[in-house]
Specification:
- This protein is of the alpha/beta class.
- Helices cover 35% and strands 16% of the residues.
- The strands form two sheets. Strands 7-1-2-3-4-8-9-10-11-12-13 form an eleven-stranded mixed β-sheet, with helices on both faces.
- Helix 6 (241-248) packs parallel to helix 9 (280-294).
- It is globular and about 70 Å long.
- 43% of the residues are buried.
- Bound molecules: S-adenosyl-L-homocysteine and iron/sulfur cluster (SF4).
Length: 395
């Protein structure tokens, strides 16, 4: 049987320079490219036919040369003005999550009236941290550039056109997916941008999908694209040492968050297999290098898991590390995952851990917000949905 033809590159995986070269080859004036980019990134058009100020011939040329594939909303949880989760279905049927978080002061970046989006970079995850839902069913594939960029566009589109229609929205059951960025009429809200902060903390290990991530961030950062400042973009990694060093050489000033979760090799080895490949000494050296090159403050993420890493004996090594990296520590009470044995520590234990770090003079925050029924860590909505769907198929 013949191999299926590869899909044409999606237009939202292309930089302005790449598109400009194509427009030049077609002998088109530069303003046509500006019109196209406006349709893609300001009006978030989901189809070529919507681009009414482009000549029909050009729309046909574009559709023959490039794909324009939208993410479909498979499931949504959460009310407007609270944390909302989106489960997207991709062209091949794979499911990924994004989480939209209203601005909270002093979490990542400054306070603002806008929103942070937590973005996925892979389908599943190969790193198999013992506490994490994303890695439970292993790794399936990398996300393409347009699938990373598409999460921002689809969320903003959804918000502009649909959010108002679901008063106090509870949960929508899994339904036949509808393309959400396919509006042919640019909506009133489409000109204003909703998302001004990105955290690359969804499903997957971002630095394992380095090239696609960097290109997507280049597009999201560009004034002609997403227009999100590099300093408002936080990349979280479980600790891929060579890629942290590579990131230090990039021109953009991205923020770096390291999922530490243990301040000794013994603790980290127990819950994060990646630590056997890149133990703490190597990870710390790479972070120090990043910190020196970028003069950026690194954040150390530390989920508190009862009986695993919440003992006061972790405080000293954690404080030493944070001091050495001049890093801020984010303590995050563990979100229990169905089927996994790990538990969130009681509140007094969380508070004691916080106080002990503060006593050491470390800049530290503890995530205290309630209502974790939906803002459990990324990966869980997908897991739940896949399990529901497979139960349905087997009955
Ligand atoms: N792979 C990257 C980014 C995605 S995970 C990384 O590991 O950094 C984003 C964050 O969520 C990580 O800090 C991860 O350790 C954390 N996390 C995973 N499962 C969690 C859970 N059940 N409760 C709280 N945080 C969790
Ligand atoms: Fe992968 Fe990050 Fe989850 Fe570890 S914590 S399994 S690296 S997504």
């Amino acid at each position: 049987m013949a191999e299926p033809l590869p899909l044409p590159a999606d237009v939202r995986s292309q930089t302005r320079e790449e598109l400009a070269a194509q427009f030049e080859a077609w002998s088109l004036p530069a303003y046509r490219l500006d019109q196209l980019l406006e349709w893609l990134y300001e009006r978030r058009a989901g189809g070529w036919e919507a681009m009414t100020n482009l000549p029909r011939g050009l729309r046909e040329q574009l559709s023959a040369r490039f794909g324009l594939r939208s993410l479909s909303l498979a499931r949504h949880q959460g009310a407007r003005d609270t944390t909302q989760k989106f489960l997207w279905k991709l062209a091949d049927g794979a499911l990924i999550e994004s989480v939209l978080i209203p601005a909270t002061p002093a979490l990542y970046g400054e306070a603002s009236d806008r929103h942070t989006l937590c973005v996925s970079t892979q389908v599943g995850c190969a790193y198999g941290c013992k506490f994490c839902a994303s890695g439970l069913d292993g790794w399936k594939r990398h996300l393409g550039v347009e699938e990373i960029v598409g999460q921002i566009l689809a969320t903003e589109s959804w918000h502009a056109t649909e959010a108002g229609a679901i008063p106090g929205a509870a949960e929508q059951p899994p339904a036949e997916p509808e393309p959400v960025s396919g509006t042919s009429q640019p909506s009133a809200a489409s000109s204003g941008r909703l998302i001004n902060n990105l955290v690359i903390m969804g499903m997957g290990e971002p630095l394992a999908n380095y090239a696609n991530l960097l290109k997507a961030l280049q597009i999201l950062n560009a004034p002609w694209g997403g227009g999100i400042g590099a300093r408002k973009i936080t990349i979280s990694t479980s600790g891929l040492v060579p890629q942290i060093r590579q990131l230090a050489e990039e021109p953009q000033q991205f923020r770096l968050a390291v999922s530490l979760h243990g301040a000794t090799d013994e603790t980290r080895n127990r819950i994060m297999p990646v630590n056997r490949k890149y133990p703490l000494a190597a990870l710390t050296a790479a972070c120090e290098y990043y910190q020196r090159r970028k003069e950026r403050m690194i954040t150390l993420e530390y989920i508190l898991i009862a009986g695993v890493n919440d003992q006061l004996s972790e405080i000293r090594p954690l404080a030493v590390l944070a001091r050495r990296l001049r890093a801020k520590v984010n303590l995050i009470p563990y979100n229990d995952v169905t089927g996994l044995p790990w538990k969130r520590p009681e509140e007094p234990v969380q508070e004691a851990f916080l106080a002990a770090l503060e006593e050491q003079g470390i800049a530290v925050t503890l995530r205290r917000e309630k209502g974790h029924e939906i803002d459990a860590a990324c990966g869980q909505l997908r897991l739940k949905t896949e399990r529901e769907l497979s139960r349905r198929e087997s009955t």
